[in-house]
Specification:
By secondary structure, this protein is mainly α. It has one domain. It contains six helices and no strands. It has helices at residues 2-16, 26-35, 41-55, 69-82, 87-102, 110-113. The chain is globular. The relative contact order is 0.16.
Length: 115
C-alpha cells in the first residue's frame, strides 16, 4: 500500500510540475540567447520552471500557445500580482513566453540539416 501511495505521489508531482508542457528545444534556447544579453540556457530553462511553479500553483497550467503574445501581455501583469512575482520574475516568464511563441522549435538552416 505504501508503495502505491509513493507511486501515486510521484505521478501527481509530475502532473503538477509541467510534465505536459513541452521542454524548450535547443533552437529555442539558442534563439533566447541571441535575443537577450546574458540569457544562457540555464536561465531560460529556469524561466520555464518558474512559469510552471508559480502559474500552476493556483490553476491548471496554461500552455504558452493558448494565447497570443498580445493577450499574454495583458494577462501576465494581472497574474503576476496574484502570484506575487517580483518584476524580475515577471520579466523572466515574459521572455519564456516569447521564446515559446517566437523562436523556431527546430533549426531549419540547411547547414544543420546536412544539405
Amino acid at each position: 500500500m505504501a508503495r502505491k501511495l509513493a507511486v501515486l505521489g510521484v505521478l501527481v508531482l509530475c502532473a503538477c510540475s509541467g510534465a505536459m508542457l513541452p521542454q524548450l528545444t535547443l533552437a529555442q534556447v539558442q534563439w533566447a540567447g541571441q535575443q537577450w544579453t546574458g540569457m544562457e540556457a540555464a536561465r531560460i530553462v529556469a524561466a520555464r520552471q518558474l512559469y510552471v511553479a508559480r502559474c500552476a500553483g493556483c490553476h491548471n497550467l496554461v500552455l504558452p500557445a493558448a494565447h497570443d503574445l498580445e493577450k499574454w501581455g495583458k494577462v501576465l501583469p494581472k497574474m503576476a500580482l496574484k502570484a506575487k512575482l517580483n518584476e524580475c520574475q515577471q520579466e523572466e516568464i515574459w521572455r519564456y513566453l516569447q521564446t515559446s511563441q517566437l523562436a523556431p522549435a527546430a533549426d531549419t538552416t540547411s547547414e544543420r540539416a546536412g544539405r
